[in-house]
Specification:
Elements (H helix, E strand, L loop, with lengths): L2 E7 L6 H5 L12 H13 L3 E11 L2 E10 L7
Parallel strand pairs: 1-3
Antiparallel strand pairs: 2-3
Length: about 80
């Protein structure tokens, strides 16, 4: 099954291009769960997200991936 769409959500401070450089799966290519897991690991290693959740939805012509982020607070009180 090919990836037909990749969307990003929940990032309010982090720019899309910062996230996109860590996502190696591409639209038009077959879905590889191991590669998606590698993308999640790379995004978590940035240490700017509290959580990274990827959902796959079957759509006409393939699968759509939605990357949803919870950003870490920029100021952590002592």
């Amino acid at each position: 099954m090919n990836i037909v769409d990749i969307t990003l959500g929940g990032n309010h401070v982090t720019r899309d291009w910062v996230i996109a450089r860590e996502i190696w799966v591409e639209e038009g290519h077959p879905l590889d769960p191991d590669q998606v897991q590698d993308d999640i690991t790379r995004l978590e290693n940035l240490a700017i997200f509290g959580s990274v959740v990827v959902t796959a939805t079957e759509v006409v012509g393939g699968v759509a991936l939605n990357y949803e982020f919870t950003e870490m607070p920029w100021i952590i009180p002592y």
